[in-house]
Amino acid sequence: MEKIFKRIAFCDIKNTFFDLSNNEFNTQTRQSILEYTKQGLLFVISTSSPIYNLDANQNLILLANQLNSRYIIASNGAEIFDAREEKYLKTTCIDELIIQKIIDFSKEFNVKIERSYIKQYYIDKDEETKNNDCRKNITSLISILCSFDNCKQIYQKLLNLNLPIEMVISEKTILITQKNVSIHNSISYLIDILNTDVKNAMAIAYNDNDLIAYSKIAYLYALDDATIPVKNKVTLFSSASNQNGIGEAIIDYFYRTRMMAEMAEQYRIKNIKLTKEIKKQTRSNINRKY
């Protein structure tokens, strides 16, 4: 099937447009996102956070709706969600045997772990489970909380266990998903569902892990307050997150892809006309028979 040109942007919520501590948007950035989603942009939240975090009282579905953002990649890729239809496109849980080994590991090395669960209601839409928070045997993501000093040591010890898992390390957290589950792979999955091309997509890079998550994205922008490795790697830049860097990146992205958008629109109109002509000719042939 021939791929369709779509403008699509991937962006995390952390350190970019939403202040988790104050539970509020950057107003200017939100306005920019809403303006360009009206012009056809698909704005995809892609984050390590779970769809529904009970402890943080955070609901990514509500955030997405406030941004006119239909799709969410959450739990570091373990959850791909359609916020408009309120349904999962794909979920991947961590095997229970692996979970138990990680629990045993955490006890041995005295580190705290947190488990993120897939919200059951959105799996089966069963009214009986609508008020249940989560089904506790579906773990999408495990977070290991460690100090800045020992996070790398813990990470290396986990590697030595040779478990079939993916890990993303930051200063004080190690995020664990099932093998081959990542934001990077989930982007590819969503791109295929939408029948578009990652070469036409954009993303906002802020921290080092974004370079891996968005490695296939053609239009990768670094915000001015991004980490040094990010700035050294990318070729497109925007202002800081608190200066509407995301909005300015989207403006630049729309300008850079304007010719592709015009060609895609011409092709779409041509196909509509061709389809009408075929239907007209078909009706004419039928009338001649009778």
From TrEMBL:
Superkingdom, taxonomy of origin: Bacteria
Entries under InterPro entries matching the protein: HAD-like_sf (IPR036412), HAD_sf (IPR023214)
Cofactor (UniProt): Mg(2+)
Example of a GO cellular component annotation carried by this entry: cytosol
SUPFAM superfamilies: HAD-like
Gene3D superfamilies, per the entry: 3.30.1240.10, HAD superfamily/HAD-like
Gene Ontology MF annotations: magnesium ion binding; phosphatase activity
PANTHER family xrefs: HAD SUPERFAMILY HYDROLASE-LIKE, TYPE 3, PHOSPHOSERINE PHOSPHATASE
Record-given protein name: Haloacid dehalogenase
Organism: Mycoplasmopsis phocirhinis
